[in-house]
């Protein structure tokens, strides 16, 4: 049981770090370039703000273990959207593979959760 929680903790922190960094980079590079790229692939540019915010804030929430299942579910939806709109056209290698791995990690956390060293346990007194 404890080994499973350690594994979930590792997945939660690594996934959170990956998404947080991706969101941060979108803002650091100037969100306008992300907006323009979205528009160039026929996705409304305003969605770039929401996606970058979800990646940054959601990643931080995963790292600290707050709303893990909800955030992970949103990340699954985000990855489905990325795969359908962008990655299928690229192919598997250097395309879908990384997003599938992130989606699988997020799906695991959405289903199983992660309680070890999670703020959720302090806030909601989960056992």
From TrEMBL:
Give a yes or no for keyword Transmembrane in this entry: yes
Query: What compartments host this protein?
Result: Cell membrane
Q: Which domain of life is it from?
A: Bacteria
Spell out the InterPro entries in the cross-references. Answer: DoxX, DoxX-like_oxidoreductase
Q: How does the protein associate with the membrane?
A: Multi-pass membrane protein
Residue ranges spanning the membrane: these are: 7-25, 45-67, 74-94, 100-118
**Keywords recorded for this protein, A-Z:** Cell membrane, Membrane, Transmembrane, Transmembrane helix
Keyword 4Fe-4S tagged: no
Question: What cellular component GO annotations does this protein have?
Answer: plasma membrane
Q: Where this protein primarily resides, as one coarse class?
A: membrane
Pfam families xrefs:
DoxX
Spell out the family assignment given in the record's similarity comment. Answer: Belongs to the DoxX family.
Record protein name field: DoxX family protein
């Amino acid at each position: 049981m404890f080994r499973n929680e350690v594994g979930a903790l590792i997945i939660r922190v690594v996934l959170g770090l990956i998404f947080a960094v991706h969101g941060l980079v979108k803002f650091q590079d100037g969100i306008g370039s992300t907006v323009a790229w979205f528009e160039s692939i026929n996705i409304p540019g305003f969605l770039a703000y929401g996606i970058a915010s979800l990646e940054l804030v959601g990643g931080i929430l995963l790292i600290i273990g707050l709303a893990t299942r909800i955030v992970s579910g949103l990340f699954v939806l985000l990855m489905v959207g990325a795969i359908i709109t962008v990655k299928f056209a690229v192919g598997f290698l250097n395309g879908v593979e990384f997003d599938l791995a992130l989606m699988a990690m997020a799906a695991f956390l959405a289903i199983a959760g992660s309680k070890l060293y999670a703020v959720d346990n302090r806030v909601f007194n989960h056992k």
